[in-house]
Specification:
2 copies of one chain form a homodimer. Chain A has 9 helices and 14 strands. Chain A is α+β, with helices and mostly antiparallel strands and 332 residues long. Chain A has 2 domains: 6-147, 60s Ribosomal Protein L30, Chain: A (2-Layer Sandwich); 162-319, Phosphoribosyl-aminoimidazole Synthetase, Chain A, domain 2, CATH 3.90.650. Chain A is globular and about 65 Å long.
Chain lengths: 332, 332
């Protein structure tokens, strides 16, 4: 089996072979193996439920690939609700002629990324479409998590809260853009793509007064902060000076005329926390490699409710608006 | 908004507009409106969890469209486990330039189909990809249902059980094939696409000794019966004479050289039931329009374990094999 053929998606013998040789092999778990038309799960209490389709191009990029992203993305959406990721579905739509070995690489990345949160893939679907009706491969993952805190919500942010960011901004967007534009960087700029649950779990277990979590994916930091300002009817004031952005990301933004605040991230999250727990939250975040440079970037006020204000290093201020227009297609 | 643009999938202002004007408008429910990165659900006991991506072409066909199919397909996968469909996610991947009014028609069909089972869409995702990277629109739906019976499984079928079919075979496959080949039929042949939960619920509530349900989707009747014969290590003997296939489907199979047993159905299910409850099960099925012609097509024996035997009207017999080879791409 060197290339994926239409028959691998037909529901007959070849589909069964693909499932055994690839999905059962790497996603191997009792629930998946027993699943018939659906998997049977036992869950307790309240659950979180989220879905995401991944269409990123190129499918392999520095720091990850579409498979790693498909797991981290959905697991992170659960984590951002304070929910422990438990069960995922995975649905592949594959273009006829796609390389089996590339598909295997993607599936292995998914397995490795699942291990970081302990979530399991328990059901799936595979469609193969004729050459030309899809560019390479799209993956949908849908996840179920167990809510560990019911206090976390974009509606709970109050005046005086601190706004933290787990790491430097804009890496995923800049990496994909550089790959597409053929910009060769001498540096090791790569996507921040990562499963955030370990840090979120530690923050929840530390019983800090966390108000909200949000990973800054499509729409970037600008989208998250505007949504929070709207939902909680507060003003969020950010100190531009404190925003961590690496030189490579700054350079790509300058060359191509983008704003790093709008760039998608895939392993970077924003935390709204009561001011008295700010230091403790930063201590917890610094325990993890992917958030070892976590920092406070601003505070919540009542200055201009529903608005995000950016304070420049030169004392000027401007609104940070919700991104508008074409942004970057197929970024995730 | 006449056409879907890349900015509708960018995560910024236009994405928010699309969500409000379309998805919130038609899928309107408290859980969806409150959902942030994930929806919060309360579920009890055991749940069933299933996913399916829909890539059907053409997207509008006689008897349905990709939206109706995306709801019926996932709801039916839950129903076939004896699970009451409760919550669905929906994820749209849309080609740039897709017509807004066609998207609205699809979404309205989804809403109408949801009403037949009472399931709700509680979370979603929208991606827009550049013209040419996808043919029109693909939809993933992933569903959660509450198990109403834990006795239903492809592993529970025993010698002596009766095999029933809810209606005539092959309509969905024949309809799509006819549309693609430009075969104009004077008749009203259309897809069987339908939500099966009402009939399944009635069968479960009647407390009949049902062993297994399965909708004969990709791979058709041949795939279902072979899977059952394998899983339960029994022989399934089918009387070809009793298999309901309408003249139009027979005609299309003859013209194009296909076998109706391999054709996908989207609202036709097979029931394995203890012989003593066969008549009662047929009575229940006949209460519903979409299964008013339900009929017994064979029995389970120990003749050739793991095999499906087809008895012809002329007394000959042959194995009905698992479909192999290319079948029909983008049938669902």
């Amino acid at each position: 089996m060197k290339y994926i053929q239409l028959s691998h998606g037909g529901g007959g013998e070849e589909t069964n072979d693909l499932i055994s040789d690839l999905f059962y092999k790497y996603f191997n778990n009792e629930i998946l193996l027993k699943a018939e038309d659906a998997a049977v799960l036992e869950v307790e209490n309240k659950i979180a439920f989220t879905t995401d389709s991944f269409t990123v191009s190129p499918i392999f990029f520095k720091g990850g690939n579409i498979g790693k992203l498909a797991i981290a993305g959905t697991v992170n959406d659960l984590a951002m609700m304070g929910a422990k990721p438990l069960y995922l579905s995975s649905s592949f739509i594959i273009e006829e002629g796609f390389s089996f070995s590339e598909l295997e690489t993607i599936v292995i990345s998914m397995r490795d990324e699942l291990a970081k949160s302990g979530a399991k893939i328990v059901c799936g679907d595979t469609k193969v479409v004729p050459k030309g009706s899809l560019d390479q491969i799209f993956i949908n993952t849908t996840g179920i998590g167990e809510l560990k805190s019911t206090e976390i919500s974009a509606h709970n942010i109050k005046e005086g809260d601190s706004i933290l960011i787990s790491r430097d901004l804009g890496r995923h967007g800049a990496t994909i853009l550089a790959a597409r534009e053929g910009i060769e960087l001498v540096s090791d700029l790569g996507s921040d793509c990562e499963t955030l649950w370990p840090a979120v779990e530690a923050l929840v277990e530390a019983k800090l007064n966390v108000k909200a979590f949000r990973d800054a994916t499509r729409g970037g930091l600008a989208a998250v902060l505007n949504e929070w300002a709207q939902s909680s009817e507060v003003c969020i004031e950010i100190n531009e000076n404190l925003l961590p952005i690496c030189d490579e990301v700054k350079g790509i933004c300058e060359i191509l005329g983008f704003d790093a605040y709008d760039f998608a991230n895939e392993g970077t999250f924003i935390i709204a926390v009561a001011a008295e727990d700010e230091e403790k939250a930063l201590e917890v975040l610094k325990r993890f490699d992917f958030s070892s440079n976590a920092v406070c970037i601003g505070t919540v006020s009542s200055e201009r409710p529903k608005k995000v204000i950016l304070h420049s290093p030169w004392g000027s201020r401007r609104y940070l608006e919700l991104p508008k227009g074409e942004l970057l297609p197929r970024i995730c």
